[in-house]
Amino acid sequence: RKIRDGGRRVDREEDAKKKKKQSQRDNVHISVTFELLLQHDPRLAKAMIPIPTLHITLLVTHLATQEEVDLAASVLAQVEPSLVELLGGRDLVLPFSGISHFRKEVVFVGLAPGQHRHTLDTVAELLQSHFEEQGLLQRGTRGFEPHLTIMKLSRASNLRSQVLVRSLHQFFGDQTVERLDLCSMLKKKQPDGYYYTETSLQLVIVKPWSLVSKLQMASFPITALELKPDSQCIIKTDRCLEQTALHKTVVHLRVYFRFIAS
């Protein structure tokens, strides 16, 4: 009987550990979200990711309570001076170019190489380190490889090969990061389909060459975060699509980083 009872006790302990692990599953991620217009084959519609939810993930973590959400908002405000110093009065422009895939099932747009990539990496590291310091992110969970998922071809498997080959070197445009918002992934979304915004962090600079600019602060670039007790950080963009005579699509985007929180 002791052996049997001991076995039951072990089973109960294992079940408890599984439940605890599930309850602590990551439910927050920082990401760059933006709107992107594509002129594409109508047959791809069912494979396309909804425009309001396009994003690049910067950080993933779990915020269990409103207190942690409030603390996360405070941490974002504390990061602002470091981000301003990092950017040094320059816009953070992200050029997106080229299409790749994961196992021919998930299609994503890549980030072109350059100093902007190093800057974005540093932004992600700053956010991660500050979240770790406040106990909002488990140490050792870092890892950042920016990519923008635009299609899930599992929804249109018959189009996989032609889509990947035809659009492999497509240029999607430059995006300037301007604002960071704290948004909820669980609350009712905004009319445009984007996440409910808890609070915003506007990074601004004064342009010294203009009296008007001294009075009107210019939007300053940064990254995004979107919370979920189930969340993530993202960039949202207003975009202008231009079609050239050669049918080359160029997308100009103003990007807003949003911290999405429950």
UniProtKB/TrEMBL annotation:
GO terms for biological process: regulation of protein kinase A signaling. It comes from the Eukaryota. GO terms for molecular function: protein kinase A regulatory subunit binding. Gene3D superfamilies: Cyclic phosphodiesterase. Residues 1-24 are annotated as: Disordered. It holds the Pfam family AKAP7_NLS. GO terms for cellular component: cytosol. Transmembrane segments: none annotated. Residues 36-203 form the A-kinase anchor protein 7-like phosphoesterase domain. This is A-kinase anchor protein 7-like phosphoesterase domain-containing protein. The gene is akap7.
